[in-house]
Amino acid sequence: MRMIVTGKDGQVVQSLLERAAENGRFEVVALGRPSLDLSVPDSIHAIISAAKPNVIVSAAAYTAVDQAENEETAATVINGVASGKIAEAASVLSIPIIHLSTDYVFDGNKDIPYVETDPVAPVSAYGRSKLAGEQAIAAATANYAILRTAWVYSPFGKNFLKTMLRLAEARDSINVVDDQIGNPTSAFDIADAVFAVASNLVDNDNAALRGIFHMSGSGEASWADFAAEIFAQSALNGGPSAEVVGIPASSYPTPAKRPANSRLNCSLLQDRHDVRLPDWKTSTAHVVARLTLKHFNDGTKL
What we know:
Mean pLDDT: 95
Strand order of the largest sheet: 2-1-3-4-5-10
Helix content: 40-55%
Largest sheet: 6 strands, parallel
Oligomer: single chain
Low-confidence stretches: none
Strand content: 15-25%
CATH superfamily of the domain at 2-157 and 185-219 and 264-278: NAD(P)-binding Rossmann-like Domain
CATH architecture of the domain at 2-157 and 185-219 and 264-278: 3-Layer(aba) Sandwich
CATH class of the domain at 2-157 and 185-219 and 264-278: Alpha Beta
Shape: globular
Order of helices and strands: EHEHEHEHEEHEEEHEEHEHH
CATH topology of the domain at 2-157 and 185-219 and 264-278: Rossmann fold
Number of helices: 9
């Protein structure tokens, strides 16, 4: 079964490629620049059709959240227009598309975890561009599963976990925001869930398996909680660690506003697809161990 995933270097793409051998059912083919350039949406259809997929995973995105405040048009072309074109290609090919979206489609003002039917109200250019992608996909095909996730980390690329480990190599204490709450999510867990959802979509045309679903790590944490767990796990492996000093988001201003509450209620995904991601602490321990042990064994940069 041929799974085309957009992008080559992203956290989820790399995790899908690594997990593919364990999954066994899907041959994962990554399509990214220069062959597939999402900033040129009109080129997408022909490239995807030539790849002859059985299912498409739309994982590539413009992810520079702060930079998007000054480049909203570019972000919307990649996250919005291009996502719609990918879905159009899936529709013509009569195959399902799985699209990765974000908690940033919400404003963060709710005091409990968000469910799929909650009103969307993005407060950043990035959030608006991702919402545009969701809407474009829904307009192009009914055979889709949009998976909203949050706070993604892995051994690949740039992410919060790797940043914390790198900072801890040079600092004894690190200020970390403690009034934004969410669900840290391992890209490996996302990959495993994507394979499960893809199998369900390919094998069953039940409409209940289509639509929007929340998909994030089990349990919740503030950024400061997440950092403290990263350092605790790193210390267990003899890696870098630092004291975490909790600060309010107002003390760490950024160009883009972040939701104070990024928690996602993922019960619908479990009910419909029988998929529940592991506890974030367990998954964090696995990623930290891999990074710290590799760092000490062969000098790989954190």
